[in-house]
C-alpha cells in the first residue's frame, strides 16, 4: 500500500510540473477544433512568416557560430600544446557566466554611435555623422554574434570530453598512412565527435529559442518577442497561446534531435592507451593561442570590463539602500527557489531509484523537460492555469462567505516560484541522479535488511553521500534563477523587482550605465558554478594523470614516432 502511494505521488508530482505545458498544447488543440481560425489566420498572414524567418536565420547563424568556436577550441586545447593552453582549458568556460542579454547591452554600449569605438574613429579621422559606414550591432547579425559568443561553451565542453576519450590508435593509424595533424582532425576525429557536436549545438539552439532579452533589445522579431508583444501589447491571449504552441512544437523537435544524437554517442571509440599531444612551435603555437583567446576576450573579458567601467561611473548605486534591497530580493528568491527545486529533485530522483517502473521513469523524465522550454512559454501556460484557479476560489469564497480574497496564486511569488521549479528542475535532477549513480545499490539492500525504511535510507545514507551533488545543484539552480528574465518579467508581483529585471528596464530606457551595477552583480554570482566546474575538470584531469590504473587520460592524440 505504501509503495503504491509513493508511486502515485511521484506520477502526480510529475504531472503537476508538466501542467503548464500540457495546458498550452490542450488549449491550442481546443482552439483549432473549435474552429477559432481567425486569430491563427491573421497571425499567419502578418507576423508568423517573419517570426519563422528570423528564428530560422538566428538558429542557423548561432549553429554555425557555436560549432566553429566550440569545436576549434576543444580540439586545440585537447590535442595540442601551446602558450596558455592550461589556462584556456578552463577559462573558455567563463562566457557561461555572462547572460546573453547582458552581453548585448555591453556591446551596444561599446559599438553604437556614442560608444567608445565609433567616437575614437571620428576623433582620429575627423569624421562626422554620415561620413562613414559602421555595422549595426542592433540587428539579426548582432544577435547571432552575441549568442554565439555566450553559448559556444556548450559545444566546447561536450566536444572536448569526446576528443579526450577518442581512440589514440585510430589517429596513429591515420598518421601511419601519411595524414598530417589537420587531416587526422578532419577525417578521423571530427566524424567520430559528430554526436557530441550535435548534442552541444542542440543545447545551444534550445537556449537560443528561449532567449528573450537579447532579441528584444536588438529589435529582432522572433517567437519569444512575438508572444510577449501579442499578449501584453495587443492583449490577445489566444494569439499568444497559439504562438507559444508553435514554439513548443519546435522545442520538442529539438529535444528529440538531442536525444537521438546522444543515443549515437555510444559509437565513439575509446583509447586503452593514452598518448601525448602535439607540441606546437613558432607561428603555429601562437596562432593556436590566438584562436582560443579570441572567443574568450570577446565573449567574457570585454563585456566584463565594460560592466566594471559602468559600475565605476555609477559608484553611488553601490551605496544606495534600494540597490541592496533589490539584491536581497534577488538572492532570497534564488535561494528559496533553489531549495524547493533541489528538494523536488531529491524526491523524484530517489523515487525513481527505489521504484524503477516504466510509469515512474517516464513520469520523472517528463517532469525534467522544463529546462528545454522557454520561460515565457511556461509563464503563459502557468498564468492560464492559476488565473482559472483564482477565479474559482473567488467564486467559491463569495458564495460561501460573501468575501473576495483577491488573487491568491497568479501575480504572486507563488506563481514565480512554480515557474522556476518547472523551468530548472532538470538541472537539479541531473546533478542528483549523477550523485545517486555513484552509490552502490548494495548499500540500499543492506539498509533494508537492517529494517530501515526508504526515507530513513535517504536521510541516514544517501544524503551524507550526496552533499557535494546537492550543493552543486543548489548553486547551479540559484544562478539560473538569478539570470532568468522572461518568466520573471511576466510573473513577478507588481511591487517586486530583481537584478535581471532592473538591468533590462535600465537598458530598455537606454540607460546602459545604470544597468551596469545589477548586471555586474549577476555576472559575479554566475562565476561561482563556472569556477566549481573548472575545479572539477582540473581535479579530474589530475586524478587521471596520477592514477596508474586509469586508462583514459586527457592526451589522446599522439604523433607517430619512428
UniProtKB/TrEMBL annotation:
Keywords: Cell membrane, Membrane, Transmembrane, Transmembrane helix, Transport. Residues 543-552 have a biased composition (Polar residues). The chain crosses the membrane at residues 55-75, 87-107, 137-157, 215-234, 240-257, 285-308, 328-350, 362-386, 406-425, 465-482, 519-538. It is found in: Cell membrane. Residues 543-562 are annotated as: Disordered. Residues 52-258, 327-533 form the ABC transmembrane type-1 domain. It is a multi-pass membrane protein. Its main location: membrane. Belongs to the binding-protein-dependent transport system permease family. This is Iron ABC transporter permease. It comes from Pseudidiomarina fusca. The lineage of its organism: Bacteria, Pseudomonadati, Pseudomonadota, Gammaproteobacteria, Alteromonadales.
